[in-house]
Design brief:
Elements lengths: L1 H16 L2 H4 L7 E14 L11 E16 L2 E16 L6 E16 L8 E11 L4 E6 L5 E7 L5 E14 L2 E14 L23 E18 L2 E12 L8 E11 L4 E12 L3 E17 H10 L1
Antiparallel strand pairs: 1-2, 1-14, 2-3, 3-4, 4-5, 5-8, 6-7, 8-9, 9-10, 10-11, 11-12, 12-13, 13-14
Length: 308
């Protein structure tokens, strides 16, 4: 039920997001903003199907909003991402998450005065990540009954990165930020660390702790292109190495999003995400989502409300 409440809250937030507060940024021509909400749905149903199968339905709401400011060599780019999805399988007593993410990326850059360097800037970046609802590991008890164990929750973990370095930007669809001095703070709830053994950790946090600080280097990049008419390929890559603890173990987060626009409102989306962080699990994490999406242009909604 908590997951359902979080899903409804995200839908409500997507409506609020398109209101007058953000639209007020457009009074200055140096500001640019755009956003999109996508609702993905997957459904399957079986009745007397001899080859087997389970009926299921799932839905995911994604919000992607961008705010940018440019003036006299200064550039500020902020990208806000959120997604929440639920899956209900026939015969299962638990709702299961298919996606849960809140992320804010912000980069401030000041161009070099030397024209030879071109698109390079001094930069400072900020990144924040957490989730909305509790995450569970599902299994069965000794009697064979289904059960679940809580593994994460809102702000557990919550990760913040702050770094300085160099920013290369060709345009809004291609940029790279290199930050050789990056601080990383991981916050968790002591509920998950109070019973840890001495050699165990929870997202890198030791017994009875609630935070972990790291100092390292970060590389973040973004690339978006139209590979065919109405087919958009979007790539996000994040790399991080901790100078203070096993610097050769590089945290890796890569997301590939392929969207095909059917018409103004309907699209199909294919998402692949690959994550490696040995503080979480010493294996590659892989996520794949395919669905038909209903698109809502937040910019046009706010413009319509302003006209009223």
């Amino acid at each position: 039920m908590n997951s359902l409440y979080s899903f409804l809250l995200l839908i409500f937030c997507s409506f609020i997001f398109s209101q007058e507060n953000i639209d007020s940024l457009s009074v200055d021509s140096n500001w640019k903003k755009n956003g999109r909400a996508v609702f993905l749905v997957n459904q399957s149903s079986f009745s007397n199907w001899t080859s087997g199968g389970q009926s299921s339905i799932s839905g995911t709401l994604k919000i992607n909003y961008n705010i940018s400011y440019y003036d006299n060599g200064w550039a500020w780019d902020t990208k806000i991402l959120s997604a929440f999805g639920l899956n209900k399988i026939s015969g299962s007593e638990f709702l299961k998450k298919t996606d849960d993410r809140v992320e804010i990326n912000s980069v401030v850059g000041k161009k070099f005065n030397n024209d030879f360097i071109g698109k390079w800037s001094y930069s400072s970046f900020f990144n924040f990540q957490t989730q909305l609802a509790k995450g569970y590991r599902f299994g069965k008890d000794s009697n064979g009954n289904p059960n679940r164990t809580e593994k994460s929750r809102f702000f557990s973990p919550a990760t913040t990165q702050l770094g300085v370095g160099l920013y290369w930007k060709k345009d809004e669809n291609l940029w790279v930020n290199i930050a050789p001095m990056t601080g990383k703070l991981i916050l968790v709830n002591r509920f998950f660390t109070k019973n840890l053994a001495e050699n165990e950790s929870y997202f890198g946090v030791k017994n009875n702790g609630n935070s972990r600080f790291e100092l390292g280097a970060s590389i973040r990049s973004f690339y978006k292109t139209e590979i065919y008419e109405n087919i958009i390929l979007e790539n996000r890559l994040s790399l991080y190495s901790d100078y203070l603890d096993r610097p050769k173990n590089i945290d890796f987060d890569y997301t590939l999003n392929v969207s095909m626009q059917v018409n103004e409102f309907i699209s199909t989306n294919l998402i692949f995400q690959f994550v490696y962080d040995d503080n979480e699990i010493k294996r590659m994490q892989i996520r794949e989502v395919l669905g038909v999406g209903l698109n809502i242009d937040l910019q046009s909604i706010s413009g319509y409300k302003k006209a009223l």
